[in-house]
Amino acid sequence: MKTDSLHILMQYAAARRRAAIPDRDALERWREPRILRHLDRVRAASPFYRELWQGLDTRDWRRFPEIDKKAMMEHFDTLNTAGVRREEAMELALEGERTRDFTPEIGGLTIGLSSGTSGSRGLFLVSRRERLAWTGTILQRVLPGPLLQGHRIAFFLRADSNLYGSVRSRRVAFEFYDLLHPLERHVERLNAQRPSVLAAPPSMLRLLAGEVRSGRLRIAPGHLVSMAEVLDPLDRRMIEESFGLRIHQVYQCTEGFLGASCSHGTLHLNEDVVHIEKEYVDAERKTFVPIVTDFVRFSQPIVRYRLGDLLTESPVSCACGSPFTAIERIEGRSDDLFVLPAANGTGFVTLFPDYVSRAIIGASERVEAYRAVLHAPDRLEIELDTAAAAGTEARAQTESDVENALAALCARIGAAMPETAFAPYAFVPGAVKLRRVQRRFAVNDRMEPV
Fold first, then answer.
1. Prediction pTM value
2. Which of 68, 210, 224, 277 could serve as a FRET partner for 403 with CA atoms 20 to 30 Å apart?
3. Quick one: CATH architecture of 337-447?
């Protein structure tokens, strides 16, 4: 509709103005009153938050209790401000998953279902107004040139949504690609569309990079965007070499549009739409768990919401000059911190996913893809994809190199090396997100790090 297009254009212009905020002090002066007004509205409209914040002054909102996905789903009916029942929303979302028709709404609200990376699937609600605001903001942050220049976008996701469908306009030819469809179908459509912007999870970009190298995929996008999964250094290198482009990132999840790369390729938090507190798990490395307050989203308010992600701040300011926090890397999920027995037999030691990744990648140039899954503190499984021409003997040597690299890493941090088994690499992009490093057991009190 023309009114939608006009609203998106206005939101795009507003996002450009916000991106021009000159420094942190100006950002805080602009942001704080907007957060306070938003929280007053949420308190009035959400029974859950009204009870949770009873007796607390909005001006002290940083002291409000935190929530997480479990609390959000348990109190879904009273947390959202539209009176939508969890049972009804879940039924509609699951029907969309079955039929692959994601257009139905409840009372004008788009209903979505997260992929469940954390182990439990989450519902999200987005109003038409929020959908159009999101569209304007993401276009401003992601497109490589002015909106009116014209763009052909290929967008790969597990599920389509009215949220993403809002992007379609005369100037933006947007095509959704379902990750559940076969690769051959994607290649055929991409060759016909010839997108100027290619946006997909890194696992899919890897497959498409292979198709480019084979000559079957004949496209030359001007902009590459990684999204929905952690961008591993090994994937980044292969994808960028295949397409001859630098990868930009979008940090988007059920809880909101949290970050995007600038023109210099640095990932910045979108601190003009979300406030992010930093719960440091390693102050020296500046690695933190984000506590998110979205001061734009109202239908399903996100206030002091503890994410399970691990982010590491950049040690230097970005040359683009943005006052928004620069992120060096998304490490993965805090749930995927390896917890290993201490080598001296007393207690446990934690190991960041990034260290595991770099040890495996650095062990051998034959490693083309991998997954490291810690099933128990003393049991590790590693899936490896090695160079096809390497042969059986070379693969055995690669496995030995990887195991030795991980053993050296464990020795360096004082951890006992878990028993390690190797297997062929088996991940296929689709319904489940790729987690290169994963822990598959819960941590209990006795596993506190020494």
1. 0.85
2. 210
3. 2-Layer Sandwich (3.30)
